[in-house]
Amino acid sequence: MFGIEAQPSHSHSSWRGPSGLKPPFYRRAWFSALVALVLLGAVAMLGAYAIIVAPLRQKAETYDLDEVKKLESASVIYDRNGDELSRIFVLNRTPVSIKDIPQHFIDALTSQEDSRYFQHNGVDYIGLARAVYLNLKAGEVTQGASTITQQLARQTFGLMDRSYRRKLMEAFVAQRIERQFSKTEILELYLNRIFFGKNFHGIQAAAQGYFGKDAKELTLAESATIAGLIKSPNNIEPIKHPERARKERDYVLDRMVIEKHLTREDAELAKMKGVITAPQNSNSQLSYAYDAVRQEVVSQLGEERATVGGFKIYTSIDKELQTKTEVAVKARLAEIEKRQGYEHQTYDQFRAIITDWRKQVSATKGDASPVPRPKPEYLQGAALVLDNRDGAVLAMVGGRDFADSQYNRATDSMRPVGTAFIPFVYAYGFTQRNVSPVSLYADEPLGNDRVMIGGFTGILGEYGMEIPNPVWSRKPITAREALVVSHNSVTVRLGEQVVLDRGLLRPGFKDFVKNAGITSPLRDAASSCLGASEAKLNELCLAYSCFATGGKRPAKMHLIQRITDANDKTVFQLDEASLQPVNAMDEISAWQTHTCLDEALHRGTGAISKDYGLGEFPAAGKTGTHHEYKDLWFMGYTSAVTCGVWVGFDKQKTIFPEAFSNKLALPIWTDVINASTQGHTPQDFSPPESAEKVDICRASGLRATDYCYEKIKGADGSSKSVRNTYFEYLRPGTAFNATCNLHTGNGISADIVAFHQHVTSPGETVMQAELGRFAHIEAVHIQDRIIIGADPYNSEQPILRAKPVNDDGTPIRRAVPIGPEEGGEPVEQPVIKLQPPPRMKIEF
User: Fold this and answer.
1) What are the residues facing 582 on neighbouring strands?
2) Residue 363's CB: how many other CB atoms inside 10 A?
3) How far is 574 from 314, CA to CA, in rounded Å?
4) CA atoms within 13 A on the CB side of 160
């Protein structure tokens, strides 16, 4: 036993082979499971292809690839009468040939968007895998997976939804495009269609819009900048976000180095250049009104749908009024610039500056940095005319020259309103029971510490009166007179009574102003009573229309009434509900404010409008001067239209000392409102039936008497008496009984005058303005003539009766009973005795 090693046992064979040996892998269980899994996956893929992919591929074959070559066609703008105004492209696009695009731009584009563009068939599978890997490695999306051809398919056919189906459809359409068009054609189609931010569609519009040059003149740095915008145009565009644009540009330059389109030295040299934009309007056919139409089309239809073009756009614009409004703004502002001693840049001077700038741009070659386009600094103006019935825009001017500045000051500019705002302070006051146009307020100096406009101390200026050296009457004046002549101090006193609560605006006043149409927020301070808060011109036009229409206003402003496509199918129709007016303020308050604004235009701060040629028709309006003469307004209306005008600089500064709005803005308004009467005939304004009509003496502001006349001299030097009263419409229940204490007649004895003044003291407020309740009282019939000559009252005449007279014409005296003579005995009067009444017996 010992020393003998154990021998291994012999293996036995069976049908599986020799025992103790491993079976081959294809006979193992895991391999069988793997094969089954692969077969199941293949079956699943075939099922998915049949259910999902095949239908999508089949649908992709239905797209008309001729659409790839079709860009937007011109749209036609019509005025309110159906006459053609202009033909525009809703999207700012100017197609160019691929031959006019520099090679370094194509290199920048492919490096950034599709580095294997010239190798793939529309879908870059290698690029897709690389993009997934790099994005995972970076932890963020740094590489796009869509090829240039896929992006073209997406833009052409509106494949915008985020889903795997859209991605597959995009890939199939891209492969079809690759089969039908050459790589060069695809690049040209892509670069003329793609969106580059703002309103720039296509490489030519982007080159003009950002750098003021044609696409063929783009430098390496500029090409990289524009190529870097494609992934997020509005978030990177260099005018608003220069630092973001520079970061993306540098990334594109690095990609060009990686793709061997650029050396590292050239890339670093290009990175040293700043991003200097030189925007230039590339569409000379646009104006402020037409650009507003274009923007509204995009807003109503969406940008993708608007790219089709070929629309018929029916607007509310009055062609003749639009032309005359543009002429008025340009002509009147040019007159201001010719004023002796005018110190600011003029429009003509800026034209010379632009001419010099264009010469410098032409001299700039190669990679030299462009010369920034000068920005206009001349005096600007804006005007807007609305239809009072529905808010339709009849005319719009957003500046003096759209080519110099596309900023629409009629709809976008927020500026301090100045004294054009104070009618809303009075209108709100007139809604209160204790305030009416006949309410009296002290016309005396007011400390600026109560308003704090332009400082914290001193006396509040009366610049709202629109005269060089305003003075205070230092006596009570009515709220009407204060609004007519625009007294700042009285306005603040009224504001402290009804608008302010411990120095802050009352919520009720804020709601009142918002309901009127001014949605811009008000500064929560006393200075808002004098228009220190900013608002837009279109907001003020809506708000002022309340006074023209008895407290109602249009729901909103609109330019477009209807849009049809190339097949005359209506794609947009203005909602009928939006044309219905909304109630903004009560009719009595609106009427009382209107009558004040009527007087403000004809005898108050706007009276000089007669010298500018204001026509003889019912109208009303208010001047608006801001502190230090920086922003000037005139807001006014007829029964048919409301017109607003603003004058000022884009960078707020004093126009010149004592530059009142009635000298600068009112002339423009006068020209426009005169032009508006052709086709928009003004009608007389009607007071509300619910108001009480009261005759008021202008001199005292109290109820008028028969003596309220003023003597004036005629042209021949003779004097005559003229009735000096007006009719006020008061809210029912207004306590107002005091009668005029200034006009008491001539030749009346002193004791009667004293008695009259005593019983008509201003503090006497017994009678209410409800005159109708005295209608049942019979009139007193006079017995003889009391007026000799002309009778201004058309008064009731006495009925003359025959009387007996003597031969000499003297009346025959009749005996009349008289009392006893002085000192005589009194006559005894008879005594009538009556029986006492019988006793009454009351039982309980």
Assistant:
1) 553
2) 9
3) 11
4) 8
Residues 6+ apart with CB under 8 A from 169: 56, 59, 60, 159
The DSSP result for 780-826, as a single string, is: PPPSS----S--TT-PPPP------B-TTSPBPP------PPTTSPP
Q: Which two tokens stand for residue 397?
A: 């001017």
CA–CA distance, 609 with 733 (Å, rounded to integer): 37
- Within 461-524, residue ranges assigned H as helices are 479-485, 488-498, 507-516
Greatest alpha-carbon pair distance for the chain in Å reads 198
- For residues 218 and 230, what is the distance between their CA atoms, to the nearest angstrom? 17
Cβ atoms of 582 and 552 within 8 Å: the answer is yes
Q: Which residues pair with 573 in a beta bridge?
A: 562
* pTM listed for this prediction: 0.73
Alpha helices in 79-217 (DSSP H): 103-113, 125-138, 148-157, 164-180, 183-193, 203-211
Helix H or strand E segment including 616: none
pLDDT at residue number 370: 64
Residues near 355 by beta carbon (within 8 Å), at least 6 away in sequence: none
Cβ contacts of 578 within 8 Å, gap of 6 or more: 555, 556, 558
The string of DSSP codes covering 428-475 is: HHTTSTT--TT-EEE-S--BGGGT-SS-SSSBPP-GGG-SSS-----S
Among 247, 203, 208, smallest CA distance to 226 is for: 203
The pair of three-digit structure tokens given for residue 446, joined into one six-digit string: 């007011």
Residue closest to 306 by CA, chosen among 158, 149, 153, 148 = 158
Q: What does the pLDDT average to over 742-749?
A: 63
Predicted local confidence at residue 763, as pLDDT: 43
Plot region of 341 (φ>0 → left; ψ -120 to 50 → alpha; else → beta)? left
* Nearest-angstrom CA–CA distance, 162 and 681: 55
CB 427 within 8 A of CB 500: no
Return the closest-CA partner of residue 112 out of 78, 84, 151, 76. 151
Whole-angstrom distance, CA of residue 704 vs CA of residue 698: 8
Burial of 231 (0-12, 13-18, 19+ CB in 10 A): middle
Among the listed residues 455, 424, 122, 88, the one whose alpha carbon sits nearest the alpha carbon of residue 284: 88
- Write the secondary structure of 666-677 as one string of H (helix), E (strand) and C (coil): HHHHHHHHHHHC
pLDDT, one tens digit per residue, over 490-548 is 999 999 999 999 999 999 999 999 999 999 999 999 999 999 999 999 999 999 999 99
Is 90 exceeded by the pLDDT of residue 367? no
The total number of residues written for the chain in this structure: 844
* H and E: helices and strands count for the chain: 24, 26
